């Protein structure tokens, strides 16, 4: 069944004389004389193919829209239009470009002709799972409020964790120990029997299937996200197995309770026999995992917290993927598969709740007031799910009717099923007016956390505080500082760099013998550490992302990429000269991802810079062309091969923009390692870029490009816009023509602080359209009507 768009009931109308003036000024239109002359040229030579309003016609079906400037558009028309041997003269091309740009081509013209809308949207898969987790968990913290990292280790002289025999308690950064034939501390433990329990929480960076691996010669049990049953149970050993595995689906950005129990003991050996000199067996233990689509690693200290968190219910029912065609996940369509998935998830949740009713509700089975207390639980459950107080109609028609059942457990199940299939839960903002404070709370929570408003936000909504701009901003700052706020920004950053899904990274073994899946996983961890340490720092400076000269390397990576790091060293920050590394654009993970198995790819690297870092629009290539294999031109450099292949006229219009940017990264090979020569020739890493104002900028190498991206208002504006889209999941222009310019200005005033930008975006997006606020600060306005 094909997807159909849900009801679009929020539509922005951008009208009025003052707006028309602003649009005209922003459009960069030419003089009235040029537009009039250009219109005549367009009617005579262009309309037959492109339509009288640029909507497309028999000769060219696609709408005539884009992001080129007037000068860029004029140049393209003069060299390419109309198709054939004779093109439009430059003088006429300039006039017709001014007309097209002002009338229907530019984003501002598109906004004027067809106003951007704030569309009704359903919950994305991620939002659905997070919301259900918080509903069932009653909003326990996603991550314990504990800055420490590692696990709490309790060491016992006996084999069964008798607290009276505990001799050592400490925080261990990870679980990877070889005790040999002695105990953890020689002289304090009997070598034949002792036990250890590690406890705390494990932080899952990504959503997906995690495989946990325990290796030991002795008895072990591993509990993750609950006390029973154990994920791994090797307490009674048989045979010679020393490796045990168990898998679990986890939601990213949340911490789950974990407990690992280890017991060394030898059946039939008592203290008297030990005194006779019977040798103790060897003892070792390690705790590893495989993150989704990554290789095995010992669970690192940064993902372990010594404080246990409450268990989290995780919906495991499969969902169809959300649309990502706009560069971010959108819940803008409903299909039969999605509807069936929500039904399966609702049933899974209802069964989980009713199976653990005393634990979840706090109501004992024999409580004399059990029915009334379970009804109160259901009322709270519905209130949280619908993000607002329960209406009298729902109270009467759903809650009261459900509890006419003889069995209150059945009533709870019915309420959970009704709630999770209700439009009030599945869709955003279908109750209340657009300036309703509960809608404001919902925009804020889904924008910053991808989940429901927490109790504090609902309290602020009930108190009317969210229509006060200052208090609204305080809530946004509180939520941005929460680990869930960082997780949302982290996901945006990975999407911005086009590594939000983990790619298969295979390289030619004869050329790169040391590059294997473990290196690829380490490189991803290195990039994630870079992003976190820049963005979560006090300055949170976008420019540092572009200009930082440091890499996070462990011993394995240092062997390939340089740095004075011991072979067995964990990740640490290593500084490089600016001529070697300049920001995330030169991070080896990114460069290796944007490369082939045996060669670099200036095209892939250039496309990332053009589309994501500079925010330019590229048309799909007219034909799919396989890259020229290096073996076909063994004496050519990659730059020479790419130049040869993209020389045809059909390629030039886009590759004149892509190639000169991608060539600046040619000093880095297919695994992101620095090089000086290719095929015996000195690498040419020069490049250029013509900005939206038509100014040509030249680069000597990647460090020059990184510096330009750190200083360019165009690049910083593109970053702000893409972050808005990722957080809000609505078009920026739907919030008014001044929204994006205002965000860019505020971004600069904050010294390009990414955390401040996050708060600015959500303060704007959460404001009710056109509603008055109790603040003197002017804000973008939105006129909204219901259809």
Could you characterize the architecture of this molecule?
With 787 residues, the chain is of the alpha+beta class. Helix content is 41%, strand content 13%. It has 29 helices and 20 strands. Strands 2, 3, 5, 7, 8, 10 and 13 form a seven-stranded antiparallel sheet that branches. Strands 4, 6, 9, 11 and 12 form a five-stranded antiparallel sheet that branches. It has a two-stranded antiparallel sheet with strand order 1-20. A hairpin with a 5-residue loop joins strand 18 and strand 19. The longest helix is centred in the middle third of the chain and has 20 residues, at 336-355.
Short description, anyone?
By secondary structure, this protein is of the alpha+beta class.
How would you summarize the topology of this molecule?
Blueprint: E1 11-12, H1 17-27, H2 32-45, H3 47-50, H4 70-80, H5 90-105, H6 107-113, H7 125-137, E2 151-156, E3 166-172, E4 176-180, E5 194-204, E6 208-216, E7 219-224, E8 232-234, E9 243-250, E10 254-264, H8 271-275, E11 283-290, E12 296-298, E13 304-305, H9 336-355, H10 357-361, H11 370-386, H12 392-402, H13 408-420, H14 423-426, H15 437-448, H16 455-462, H17 469-481, H18 483-496, H19 517-535, H20 542-547, E14 550-553, H21 555-561, E15 572-575, H22 588-593, H23 602-613, H24 638-645, H25 649-662, E16 677-678, E17 681-682, E18 687-690, E19 696-699, H26 702-711, H27 713-728, H28 739-749, H29 754-766, E20 784-785
Antiparallel strand pairs: 1-20, 2-3, 2-5, 4-11, 5-10, 5-13, 6-9, 6-11, 7-8, 7-10, 11-12, 14-15, 16-17, 18-19
Helix pairs in contact: 1-6, 2-5, 4-5, 5-6, 9-13, 11-13, 15-16, 15-29, 17-29, 18-27, 23-25, 27-28, 27-29, 28-29
């Amino acid at each position: 069944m094909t997807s159909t768009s849900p009801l679009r009931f929020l539509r922005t109308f951008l009208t009025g004389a003052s707006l028309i003036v602003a649009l005209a000024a922003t459009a960069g239109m030419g003089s009235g004389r040029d537009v009039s002359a250009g219109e005549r040229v367009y009617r005579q030579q262009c309309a037959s193919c492109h339509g009288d309003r640029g909507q497309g016609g028999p000769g060219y079906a696609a709408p005539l829209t884009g992001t080129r400037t007037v000068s860029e558009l004029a140049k393209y028309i003069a060299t390419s239009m109309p198709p054939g041997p004779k093109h439009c003269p430059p003088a006429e091309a300039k006039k017709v470009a001014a007309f097209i740009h002002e009338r229907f081509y530019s984003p501002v013209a598109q906004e004027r002709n067809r106003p951007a809308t704030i569309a009704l949207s359903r919950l994305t898969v991620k939002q659905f799972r997070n919301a259900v987790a918080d509903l069932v968990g009653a909003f326990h913290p996603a991550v314990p409020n504990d800055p420490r990292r590692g696990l709490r280790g309790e060491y016992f002289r006996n084999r069964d964790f008798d607290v009276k025999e505990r001799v050592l308690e400490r925080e261990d950064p990870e679980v990877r120990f070889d005790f040999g034939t002695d105990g953890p501390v020689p002289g304090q433990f009997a070598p034949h029997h002792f036990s250890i329990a590690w406890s705390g929480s494990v932080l899952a960076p990504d959503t997906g299937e995690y495989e946990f691996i325990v290796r030991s010669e002795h008895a072990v049990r591993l509990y993750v996200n609950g006390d029973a049953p154990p994920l791994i149970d090797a307490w009674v050993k048989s045979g010679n197995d020393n490796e045990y595995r168990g898998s679990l689906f986890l939601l990213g950005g949340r911490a789950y309770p974990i407990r690992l129990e280890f017991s060394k003991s030898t059946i039939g050996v008592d203290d008297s026999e030990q005194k006779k000199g019977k040798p103790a067996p060897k003892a070792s233990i390690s705790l590893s995992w495989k993150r989704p689509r990554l290789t095995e690693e010992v669970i690192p200290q940064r993902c372990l917290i010594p404080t246990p968190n409450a268990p989290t219910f995780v919906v495991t029912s499969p969902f169809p993927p959300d649309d990502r065609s706009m560069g971010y996940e959108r819940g803008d369509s409903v299909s039969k598969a999605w509807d069936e998935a929500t039904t399966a998830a609702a049933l899974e949740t209802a069964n989980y709740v009713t199976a653990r009713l005393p634990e979840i509700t706090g109501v004992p089975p024999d409580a004399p007031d059990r029915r009334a207390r379970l009804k109160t639980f259901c009322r709270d459950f519905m209130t949280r799910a619908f993000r607002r107080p329960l209406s009298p109609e729902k109270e009467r028609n759903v809650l009261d009717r459900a509890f006419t059942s003889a069995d209150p457990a059945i009533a709870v199940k019915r309420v959970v099923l009704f709630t999770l299939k209700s439009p009030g839960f599945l869709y955003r903002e279908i109750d209340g007016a657009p300036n309703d404070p509960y809608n404001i709370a919902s925009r804020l929570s889904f924008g910053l956390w991808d989940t429901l408003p927490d109790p504090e936000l609902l309290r602020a909504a009930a108190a009317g505080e969210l229509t006060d701009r200052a208090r609204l901003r305080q809530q946004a700052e509180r939520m941005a500082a929460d680990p869930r706020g960082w997780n949302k920004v982290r996901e945006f950053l990975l999407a911005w760099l086009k590594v939000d899904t983990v790619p298969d990274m295979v390289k030619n073994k004869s050329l790169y013998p040391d590059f294997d899946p473990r290196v690829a996983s380490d490189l991803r961890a290195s990039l994630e550490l870079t992003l976190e340490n820049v963005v979560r720092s006090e300055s949170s400076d976008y420019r540092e992302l572009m200009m930082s000269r440091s890499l996070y390397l462990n011993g394995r990576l240092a062997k390939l990429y340089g740095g004075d790091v011991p072979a067995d060293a964990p990740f640490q920050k290593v500084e490089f000269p600016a001529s070697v590394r300049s920001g995330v654009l030169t991070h080896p993970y990114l460069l290796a991802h944007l490369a082939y198995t045996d060669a670099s790819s200036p095209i892939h690297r250039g496309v990332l810079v053009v589309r994501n870092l500079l925010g330019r629009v590229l048309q799909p290539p007219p034909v799919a062309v396989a890259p020229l294999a290096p073996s076909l031109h063994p004496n050519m450099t990659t730059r020479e091969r790419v130049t040869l292949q993209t020389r045809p006229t059909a390629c030039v219009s886009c590759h004149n923009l892509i190639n000169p940017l991608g060539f600046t990264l040619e000093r880095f090979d297919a695994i992101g390692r620095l090089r000086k020569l290719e095929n015996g020739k000195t690498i040419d890493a020069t490049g250029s870029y013509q900005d939206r104002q038509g100014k040509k900028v030249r680069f000597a190498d990647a460090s020059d490009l990184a510096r330009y991206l750190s200083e360019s208002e165009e690049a910083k504006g593109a970053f702000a816009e893409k972050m808005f889209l990722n957080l809000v999941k609505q078009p920026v222009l739907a919030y008014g023509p001044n929204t994006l310019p205002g965000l860019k200005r505020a971004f600069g005033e904050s010294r390009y602080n990414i955390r401040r930008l996050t708060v600015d975006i959500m303060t704007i997006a959460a404001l009710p359209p056109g509603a008055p606020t109790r603040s003197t600060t002017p804000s973008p306005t939105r006129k909204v009507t219901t259809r």
